[in-house]
Amino acid sequence: MAILDRAIVRLLPAVPRPLVQKLSERYIAGPELKDARETVRCVNAGGKMATIDVLGEEITNEDEAAAIVRAYQDVFADIEHCGLDSNVSVKLTALGLKLGFDVCRANLRAVVEDAASRGNFVRIDMEDSSTTDDTLRLYRELREEGRDTPGIVLQAMLRRTVDDIAAVADLKPSVRLCKGIYVEPSDVAFQEYEDVRRAYVRALQALLDARCYVGIATHDEWLLEQGRRLVAEHGLRRAEYEFQMLLGVRAGLGDGLVREGHRLRIYVPFGRHWYAYSIRRLQENPRIAGYIAADTLGRLVGRRNGA
Question: For this structure, is 176 an active site residue?
Fold first, then answer.
């Protein structure tokens, strides 16, 4: 299957742009804020919360980073005006991390301050391992300045994650725990599927032991079951944790969590950089490419059989 997944990835640049757009419709709200707004309304109507991400990691100058800040300010205003149950997720490279630490810090502060003024929340996403130290440093700086509105993301596949949890435990952080999708060397990240799963459970256990608020972000049925088990063992009330999933991915599992009484947040990306985002995400993790191809084929076959 891995060979097939990689073959699909190699073919991606040759896939016509309209077809990539068609395939990505389930996973990206669209190019404009209004697309995200309507998607979040549908998510909320289904009893789920949302987190909105403005696509735009390919930042080459400070003006582009400033435009992303303004886009997030527009998102917060829209969330407030429309009464949406949503926060936001930001990638530091979109705010200029590769342009300079100080540039990114100023932009992140602007986003966090706008969120705080509207009673909202900013999830600082985690990218590849080259950004981990700077991301955790910025998060700690904001919290030590007395800002309670930002949260962080940790990736279970990184070998350092349990140590990172211990390092930030004093802040009682709000953490989204995910497996991680970036291709990393073996000395940095676990490579085998079961090793990543075990690392996820260890990290989740460590976060809950530290009494952190955790967004359990996974589509893995076994990990979902482990999440349920650990939440129950820690005696957590409904408001003290949440599950998180990507828009358009394994929606039936998410609906099941909601029926069971768990809170679920859906990650809703939007923006004009949808094409680069789609291709890059698939190239970063060939298994996602294979999953989407199989999922799309299954839907097409199911539609034809139901016709």
Answer: yes
